[in-house]
Design goal:
The chain is mainly β. It has no helices and twelve strands. It has a single domain (2-129), classed as Immunoglobulin-like. It has a five-stranded mixed β-sheet with strand order 1-12-11-6-7, with no helix packed on it. The protein has a five-stranded antiparallel β-sheet with strand order 2-3-4-10-8, with no helix packed on it.
Length: 132
């Protein structure tokens, strides 16, 4: 497993593929409607893949998970708003970003791990740290 030393440090692979946590933002749900929980706190993570390799990078199987706390509790995924998953391929020397939302209790902000698995050739990129 490859891990960054913090939430904002990019994970770089030997073939020059890089995964970076580009942006973190909090959002309180103010809307109402089916499947929407007004007042819910969502943390949105924008991730960026940069393909420095010589081959196209397939992003059709990206899986992003978040855990928090010393017992590594699984954060609930939120598909609120216009969040988008990675898809398609990235040409060499190109990059692509996507946003993933998770419901994180404030008590989980100090001990967070975001894991990004994208294929069977590369180890999981792990970003660990605190949101505060």
């Amino acid at each position: 497993m490859t891990a960054s030393t913090g939430l904002r440090k990019a994970v770089e692979y030997d073939d020059r593929i890089t995964v970076k946590l580009a942006k973190i933002q909090g959002y309180e749900v103010k809307e109402e409607g089916p499947g929407i929980i007004k007042g819910q706190q969502i943390t949105i993570f924008t991730l960026t893949f940069t393909n420095g390799s010589t081959k196209p990078l397939d992003l059709n199987n990206v899986k992003v998970t978040a855990t928090y706390g010393d017992q590594e509790r699984q954060a609930e995924t939120s598909y609120f708003g216009n969040l988008n998953d990675f898809f398609g391929t990235v040409k060499p020397s190109d990059s692509r970003s996507a946003a993933y939302g998770f419901v994180l209790p404030e008590s989980g902000y100090d001990d967070l791990a975001l894991r990004v698995k994208f294929d069977n050739e590369h180890s999981t990129a792990v970003f660990v740290g605190s949101l505060q």
